[in-house]
Every structure is written in C-alpha cells, then in structure tokens.
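Re: beginner question about structure tokens

> Can someone show what the tokenized structure looks like for a real chain? I only ever see the sequence side.

Sure, here's an example I had lying around. Input first:
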Amino acid sequence: MRAAVCSWLLALLVACSAPPRVDAARRPNLLFLLADQWRGQALGFLGQEKVQTPHLDAMAREGLVLTEAVSNYPVCSPYRAMLMSGQYPFRNGVYSNCNSKTTEHGCELRQETTCWSDVLAARGYRTGYVGKWHLESPRAPFVESYNNSPKFAWNEWTPPARRHGFAFWHAYNTFDRHLAPEYWETDMTRDQRLKVDRWGPEHEADVAIEFLEAHQDSPFALVVSMNPPHMPYGQVPQRYIDRYADVPNQELLGGRPDLQAADTRMGRYTRRNLRLQYAMMTGVDEQIGRILQALDELGLTEDTIVVFTSDHGDCIGLQGEISKNNAYELSMRVPLLMRWRGTLPARRDDLLLSVPDLYPTLLHLMGAGDDVPADVQGENHAELLLTGAGDRPAAQLYMKCPQGAMHLGKRGVRDHRYTLVVDRQAGEPETVLLRDRAEDPYQMKDYAAERPEVVERLRREQLEPLLERIGDPWLSRSAGEAR
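And the corresponding structure tokens:
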C-alpha cells in the first residue's frame, strides 16, 4: 500500500513539474501585433528608456520576453518578407524597401512563395491583415497617394491573389500620414480607398476588435501592423504627448555617450523627436491594451498566442544615425514578447532568435509543424520556448545589400558579446568592423584592428558557416577572392 502511495506521489510530482506540451489536436489562435521602428530597449519594464508602456509591461509579466531578438536586415520590407516567408532576402527576393526604384529588380514578396499565412489558411483558419504591408512593388501609372509622385512611388494596392491567404484585408503598403490614414478593404479595387479621420493605431485597433468578435468561434490568425512609432513623429494625438509634458528633456535623454552634441544636426534631431516618439509608443501601447482586453472579454486569451514585435529599431539621431539600416543595437534589436496563457511559461530568455525563425516556431507551436515548407530557412525553437531546453544558435546574421548585387554589401554576425560586420563593395577594399558590447555597450569603439583573432574566429566559426547554410551568394568564389 505504501509503495502504491509513493508511486502515486512520484507520478504526481513528475506531472506537476513536467514542461508544458502542445496538444497536437488543439488549434490555437494567433494574434500578431507588429509595430514599425520600435527599439528593443524602449519598453517600460526594462528600465532602459523613460517610455511608458503599461499594457506591454503587463503582457511581459505573464509571457515570454526574448531579450536578444533582432532584425537581421533592419529595414521595413526585408524584415517583413523574412517574417512572412521564413527565408533570407536573397531567396525571398526582398533585399531592400519595396518602392518604384526597386521594382525593376523584382523586389517584392513573390506570389508563389508559401507564407505561414498560406499554411494556416489552408488549414481552415480565418485569416486577417490590418495595417501596413509594404511588400508590394509600385507599378506605373502609380496610384494617387501623398507619398507617390509621377516619377517615384511607395504606396500600392495588393491584388487578392497576392495577399498570401489573408481573406480579410484592411491594409495599405506604406502611407505615413498617421493622423489621416488610408486603406484598401477586402473587396476594393486599385482605384478605391477608405480614408479615415482618426489616428492609424486607434482605427486599426477598432478593426481588429471587430475581427475578433466576428471570428471568436473559429480558429483565427490576425496580423495588426501599426505604422507608428515610425516617423513623422509629430503625427500623434496630443493626449499622448501630454503624458510626457512634465518630464524634463534631460531625464528623457540621460547621459548616454552616443547622444550627439546639442549644436549638431543629429543632436537637435534626437532632442526634438524623442519625446514625440515616446508619445507614439505610449499610444500604440494603449491600443494594444484595448485589443488584449477584447481577447479577455471574449474568453479567447487562453486559446490565443499573442506576439508583439517590431520590424526594426530606430537610432533617432543617436550614434549620428537618423533611423535604421545599420548594425547598431538601437537599429537591430527589436522587442519580442510572446504570451500564451497557461501554456507558454512566463520568463525571460536570451535566445539569439532571427526573423525567419518565427515562421517554423509559430507553426510548430500551433500544431502545424508538419506543413512547414522545405524551403523555409528559419529554425524551429518551439520546444525551447516551451521548456527552456534545446539547441541554441550561437549567433545571428546581419545583412545589407546593394540593389541588384546580392553578392556584395554587408554581412555580419551578432553573438552574445560581439557584433562583427564585413563590408564588401565593388572595386573597393573590404572593410571590417568589430564591436564589443560587453566592454562598450553603447558601441562607441571599433575593436577590429586590436583583436584580429576575434575577427577571424567569428568569420570562420559563425559568419561563413551561417552564410553557407542558407546559400548566400556573398560567399561566391568571386566574392571570396575580394577578401
């Protein structure tokens, strides 16, 4: 009898301590919240910047915080293509921002690519996309838009056949009038448009909540892609600016060494815009709070994986850089919060996750791992997110490519200490940059000349094997001869 009781107690203890597992028959919902140009350091609960984000702070307390997530190519369209395709730019074809200048190079998300949204739509999910898409090449004659001219264009309509499984569509490609946004709805043609007299994130939260209410009884996958805190920073309701009215400028800025002098162009840029950007972040946070509250009220929270992240960060004049598309932490690091109440343990993890990894990881979490296409280049970390155990990447890739020359440009790696960048341009000597983020967290110094052994080790053990694994043409013979 005592042996039976002991066996029962042991089984109970094992069951209580066992890591959570995903029920293969369960079909969780997915709510993917994407901001544009939000630094990974700019979350209130981290205590690194003086920004107010109470709703994201609450989400972080009950979810998984991936503190070392990056945008491998920190600019809008390349990130979004990696996210949707699970592939790096040379394979998905989006190696720069989608605009009329890159249209001739085929720079847009290909129709034949199987995105994770295509997979979920095929599995019967109700799918929706709200907000900024920015994966379509503008074609002449360009649509009428404030950021389009007869000679150069950014914005474009996305035909239904190119929406990658998203049946509900309330989106645009890129349109930066945050206080007067415009959208194409599901059944609209290219020459139609819905013009909204409301701040973009507020309107998009309304649309998202309506979608949740309409699809609460069936599995759904919804992306809400908000443009703020992308510039222009002043396009934000005054009530959010007022939240920072009593905070002195010096308290917002701190004494950081990467802040440029007050009498320089970038110094003035930071001092003029940081408060406005924080106001935008607080406004987006409030709208995310509204969406999460709707999930609670509909009883969907425990059945929904919620992800919050951004396509890249923003230097906002710090380091002398106006925004993104560089290898500074302010540009590469992105926030990444994941919440699945009751299934995904609440904790912090320094996993070196890359953008393409989100595709297979999310599908495996959702029980759709068998449907991940063979050409997806991201790695599945679902088990690691659930248990904390498993193989971990030693580094993340960084890249920046010139138009029409994928074998050139910048390639680099970021591990837990160093950031290495190798720059290869046509007809010019190769240059190497090495940052030590442990000794120099603000990345003020280049260590490449004094630590050649570190440079060589990172190239040999991390950069070249990663590029070889994904088949990056930067490692072609002609490029290798440039070394």
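Each token stands for a local structural state, so reading them left to right follows the chain. Confidence is low (pLDDT under 50) at residues 1-20, 477-483.
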